[in-house]
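During the reporting period the student researcher (J.K.) took over the structure-prediction task from the postdoctoral fellow and processed the backlog of single-chain submissions. One of the processed entries is reproduced below for the supervisory committee.
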Amino acid sequence: MAVRGVALLSDELYVLRVSGKSADVAVYETRSFTLERRLTVPGLRAACDLAACERSGRLFIANRCTDVIHTVRT
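J.K. obtained the following structure tokens:
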């Protein structure tokens, strides 16, 4: 599992993890860095970066295979 991106949103740290042809986002609580949950994004394969928007409360994940930006509401 390789880390391709990290983002901070509110009190949560989002870590984009890629392994082979699959990817997910691990969500950690920032005070204790305890894993809270994992997010799966349909169609996400070759994820290469992650960004967060505090105003919209969304994550944006770049997919280099399809040239698509996936949007995830947190």
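The committee noted the following: Strands lie at 2-9, 12-19, 22-29, 35-39, 47-53, 58-63, 68-73.
J.K. will present the remaining backlog at the next meeting.
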